[in-house]
Specification:
By secondary structure, this protein is α+β, with helices and mostly antiparallel strands. Among the domains are: 92 residues, Rossmann fold, CATH 3.40.50; 56 residues, Dna Ligase, domain 1 (2-Layer Sandwich), CATH 3.30.1490.20. 30% of the residues lie in helices and 24% in strands. It has 13 helices and 22 strands. The strands form 6 sheets. It has a 5-stranded parallel β-sheet with strand order 3-2-1-4-5, with helices on both faces. It has a 5-stranded antiparallel β-sheet with strand order 12-15-18-22-19. Strand 10 and strand 11 form a beta hairpin. The structure holds adenosine monophosphate and glycine (GLY). Adenosine monophosphate binds next to strand 7, strand 8 and strand 17.
């Protein structure tokens, strides 16, 4: 197969890696790109969020499968345009992508189809927001309705702060159109995890479960980020738990989409909160794989990712066999000093070959590029995800951290506690 992959971050490097390992795949094209993906794929310098350009490239290459990594092209309907030309696409069209593109739409969808989630109000004015906040106790949860690159959800300790955020979103429009509406919902205590279900709109297959570490610094301190590391699978997300997720969340979601006449071929990302008594609620849907979850999930996945993506895109998932997880993977993000706020770019990265030459280590690139002198340099906030794999979580973790010791660039920082205490003893 010739596969065209859209997106140029760590998630897409992991996807290109998984695709390249499939006997079905002969040729991978990617747009845009980073220095890591460039070693696995032919590169095209276009912005896949521009439907015209994305369609143009797909028509030119005539691939057997298009895989769309990020949310922006999905919400922009790129999958629809390409699918209309008869090319199979792994990724939902604009209608399905509203599950991620509008939090209000997702909450109403869940309410309509009996899918457990926090009680909520949708507010378009500060007066409505005031009323919704006053019904609740701290901490307050306020979310911008639209896409906000991970910066649209707020957890606030006081009524004053929550009100200020609502004013910023609804009146001062700090997130533009994305904050035209806000969702205010009950705070849910518990432990978060991510469950990815690949679906073709009628049936689904789970990928291994994972947990992301969103705060910048050790001990879950510091600002929220796109994710500083992830591990997969999660020990307590056993078969009984996944059956419950299936029954309470994924089956009703897939059925609900069909009932609402929304086609969906791609990944349903279920961000779940699990409370002390095992109660499950959906925090959010995404319509794509997570970053950095994918960098851990795909190395942990025992199956053929290309076959799975193709079956989803073709609507023939029912004919595939469900694969079980065979390995553990821990992915640690190396970031630029200052991330998630201002950071500098262009620092040469050393030790990449030595690190990725180690047993059970894969180095996925996120924000990297090749400079004029042919050096691999940092070009983003999250620069690399260094992944260790193994037969258990401690050995996967040890491999990731041993490889991190080899890699250097100016201002690099990473969390030392990814997957720590998750079935791993603190002295390991
Ligand atoms: P979201 O973008 O909806 O996933 O929210 C971002 C993060 O905010 C989540 O990963 C949670 O850590 C936190 N969060 C969102 N909604 C809630 C909630 N209702 N209760 C507790 N924490 C939440
Ligand atoms: N790591 C969270 C996300 O990809 O949405």
């Amino acid at each position: 197969m010739r596969v065209l992959l859209y997106g140029g971050g760590g998630r897409e490097h992991a996807m290109a890696w998984a695709l390249s390992r499939s006997p079905l795949v002969g040729e991978i094209h990617c747009a845009p790109c980073n220095a890591g993906i460039a070693s696995l794929a032919k590169i095209h310098d276009i912005d896949p969020s521009d439907p015209e350009k994305a369609l143009d490239l797909a028509e030119k290459l005539s691939p057997d499968l298009v895989v769309i990594g990020p949310e922006t092209p999905l919400v922009a309907g790129v999958a629809d345009f390409i699918r209309e030309r008869g090319i199979p696409v792994f990724g939902p069209g604009a209608l399905g992508a509203r599950l991620e593109g509008s939090k209000a739409f997702a909450k109403l969808f869940m309410a309509r189809h009996g899918i457990p989630t926090a009680d909520f109000d949708i507010c378009e004015t500060v007066e409505q927001a005031d009323a919704a906040l006053c019904k609740r106790t701290p901490p307050y949860i306020v979310k911008a309705d639209g896409l906000a690159a991970g910066k649209g959800a707020f957890v606030l300790g006081t009524l004053l702060e929550a009100r200020e955020i609502c004013i910023n979103l609804l009146q001062r429009k700090i997130l533009g159109e994305s904050g035209r509406k806000v969702v205010i919902e009950d705070f849910l205590p518990g432990e978060e995890l991510t469950v990815l279900a690949v679906t073709d709109g009628s049936t689904f297959r789970f990928l291994p479960s994972s947990q992301d570490h969103k705060r910048a610094f050790d001990g879950d301190k510091g600002p929220n980020t796109g994710g500083m590391g992830a591990y997969s699978p999660v020990a307590w997300a056993d078969d009984t738990f996944l059956q419950k997720v299936s029954f309470q969340v994924v089956e009703p979601t897939v059925r609900g989409l069909a009932l609402d006449s929304i086609p969906f071929r791609g990944v349903l990302y279920c961000g779940l909160m699990v409370d002390q008594s095992g109660g499950i609620r959906v925090l959010e849907y995404n319509v794509r794989m997570g970053d950095p979850e994918t960098q851990a999930v795909l190395p942990a996945f025992g199956g053929d990712f290309a076959a799975l993506a193709l079956a989803s895109a073709n609507g023939s998932l029912g004919k595939t066999v469900a694969e079980s997880t065979s390995r553990f993977a821990v992915g640690v993000v190396m970031a630029s000093k200052g991330y998630p706020s201002y950071y500098e770019k262009g620092f040469p990265i050393s030790g990449l070959e030595r690190a990725s030459g180690k047993d059970g280590v894969i180095v996925f690139h996120s924000g990297t590029t090749i400079n004029g002198a042919g050096q691999t340099v940092s070009s983003g906030g999250r620069v690399l995800t260094v992944v260790g794999t193994g037969d258990d979580l401690p050995s996967a973790r040890a491999r990731a951290y041993s490889a991190l010791d080899d890699i250097r660039f100016e201002g690099a920082f990473y969390r030392k506690d990814i997957a720590l205490g998750k079935g791993v003893k603190h002295d390991e």
